[in-house]
Each structure stands twice: as structure tokens, then as C-alpha cells.
Amino acid sequence: MPYTDIDFEKPGKQVGNIDFPHSIHTDAWGVLPIPVCVIKNGTGPTIILQGGNHGDEYEGPIILGELVRDLDPARVSGRLIILPTINRPAIEAGNRCSPLDGLNFNRTFPGKLTGSITEQLSSYVHDALFPLADAFIDLHSGGSSLNMMPSAIIEPCKDSNLAQKIRAAVMAFGAPMNVVISNYGDPRTSTAAAVRAGLVTVGTELGGAATVTPQALEIGRNGVFNLLAHLGVLEEKPEPTLLQATPVHQISGADAYVRASETGVFEPFHKLGDKVEAGQGAGRIHFLSDPEKAPVELVYARKGVVYGLRQPGNVRPGNCCVVIATRCQEQVIA
Ligand code: CA
Predict the structure, then answer these.
(1) Inter-residue contact 19 to 33 (CB < 8 Å)
(2) Crossing angle of helices 214-230/160-173, nearest 10°?
(3) How far is the CA of 72 from the centre of ligand 1 (A)?
(4) Which of 82, 178, 274, 294 has the fewest CB atoms within 10 Å, measured from its CB?
(5) Best CA proximity match to 175, nearest among 137, 222, 211
């Protein structure tokens, strides 16, 4: 069973590990230590802050590491449970999925206590931590295969009361763009599971391309403090300008993704943030070993803004080349 010395009820700041027994060839009775920090002071809500869900998305772990080192517990009203690198094996490998069992942590919720190591991590977050919390923030970026417009993410929610709180929290984060993302309707992500558990849930996409940018870091840092102020855990109030409603976009369905139809090299026609029309060319796939063969063009199925772009040039059928976000009506949120 996972074990920790951290006392989740004790006031002050504690930094330690959650140890997951991990019996392998080179270490029969060893554990996989996952860093955790609990900051508790006074009364107020409990917020889980998670980074390193995917191991090639670095802004979350950097921002949460700063919080662990720098946040004075006296400033907090309530409790923060900070997991800067929940998927530590993936972070150390710089890989989206865990090198230990090949699983994508963010497709394993609600997890399984008797499952593989990644399923045990998600099971702990779901079964041990979610019940302690009022709100959950999961800091993502685009990772190795995608670059994204820095944005805060609204996870769809059927409960209209919770959906309103989620929308307000995402707005308070103050990212330049807010996007409703359902991940093809997948119920196995940590944010989908957090919403089902009734938590006020905020996601992010802070850039990507397996790099770190100062711009995305700044949006993420400000966003976390704005959100904690909005939730009543920090006293500072967000700048009034940040509370102005940013237009909400959505990735509205399968046709929001432009996917490769051939094996080859993808040449995009647009850059992040460009406005595009349905039927317009999105890019073309080149066949480098067959110079006589004409490239095949891909087209946008819907109007919107270029929100995500594939990073590696090489593609095979089904690869996501471009993601289009579309302005949405308010009722989509509820
Ligand atoms: Ca991600």
C-alpha cells in the first residue's frame, strides 16, 4: 500500500514523499517516491495542485516547485496539497507516458490499487486525495507532439451548479484563452475524474513542444496565484482586468482535429493563433522518398483559430496535425 509520513491535518508546511511499493528485478523491497507538499493554515478550502501528469510538460512542475520552496504558510487560508511531479518516472524520462509500464497516467483514472504502478498513482490521487479536496488544478502543456496556445481548460460538467463554479475558476485563472476540452469524451483523465468527484476543476495547456517558454511560465504563475485568490486560499485579489470575461472556445468534436491521411512529412499552412475557414487548406503531406508523387493536401473541417500544431514533421495516418478551437456559446459550458 502507498505510504507517507505527511500528516494532511497538521498546520504549517511539510515536504516529503508518497512511497509506492515497487518490487522490481533490481530492487525487491524498494519504493517509488512521489514528491508531495502540504501547506495548511487557518480555515479554508483544500486545493490539490498537480503537475507532471505527462513527463514532457515542464511548466507545471516548475511552477509548483516554486510554490513548494517560496510560499509562506502564513499567507494561506486553508490547505494546499501540491504534487509537482505526480508522474515522476515519466518526468525523469522526459516522456509523455511512464517508462515503467508504458501507460499514459492521464488515461488511467479512476486508477486501480492492484493495477500497474501508474494505475496505483491515479488510484491514490482519486481515492486518497480527491475526498480531501474542494478544488483540483492540473497543469499541462502540449508535450513533445503538440504546441498549444497558452490557455486554461474547462472540463465539461453535466452538473450546472458545479459547471458554473468551474467556469468562474477558469476565468479567474486569467489565461489569454479559455477552452472547453473533452479529450474525445474520455472519462479516464484526471480532470474528468475530478469533475465526477465534484471538485472545482481547472486545467491548462501552457505552450508545449517539450520546451519551456518564459511567456507560458508567466501565464501559469499568475494563473495559479489568481486562482488561489479566487478560491479564497490566498488573500490577494486578482487584478480586475483579469476578471473580464475572456472569450470561451471549444474543441467541439472529432472534426476539430485535422489528422494525417498518409505516411509522410506534414507541412502546416498556418501558425498558432491564425484564423481559418472550413474547407481551407490546413497543410500538405510530402512523400520524400517519391519525389514524383504530388503532396496530399489536408483541409479544415471547421472554422476557428489554430489552437494546437503538431511538432514532429513525420506523420502516419491518424496523427493529429492541427487542432482548431471554435468560439462557443455560453450554453455549451453548462
Ligand atoms: Ca498533457
Answers:
(1) yes
(2) 130
(3) 29
(4) 294
(5) 222
Give phi and psi for 222, each to the nearest 5: -60, -40
| Rounded CA separation 18/118 (Å) | 14
**Centroid of ligand 1 to alpha carbon of 159 (angstroms):** 25
Ligand 1 centre distance from Cα of residue 303 (Å): 24
Give the contacts of 29 (CB within 8 A, at least 6 positions apart).
21, 23
Q: How far is the CA of 15 from the centre of ligand 1 (A)?
A: 25
- List, in order of start, the domains of the chain with CATH numbers: 3-247 (3.40.630.10), 254-328 (2.40.50.100)
- Using CA atoms, how far residue 246 sits from 92, 144, 167, 172, 328, in Å, is 35, 28, 11, 10, 12
Q: What is the pLDDT along the chain (334 residues), one digit of tens a residue?
A: 999 999 999 999 999 999 999 999 999 999 999 999 999 999 999 999 999 999 999 999 999 999 999 999 999 999 999 999 999 999 999 999 999 999 999 999 999 999 999 999 999 999 999 999 999 999 999 999 999 999 999 999 999 999 999 999 999 999 999 999 998 889 999 999 999 999 999 999 999 999 999 999 999 999 999 999 999 999 876 555 555 567 899 998 889 999 999 999 999 999 999 999 999 999 999 999 999 999 999 999 999 999 999 999 999 999 999 999 999 875 444 3
- The C-alpha cell at 165 is 463554479
Query: What whole-number distance in Å separates Cα of residue 247 and Cα of residue 244?
Result: 9
C-alpha cell at 319: 496523427
Give the integer Cα–Cα distance in Å for 47 and 44. Answer: 10
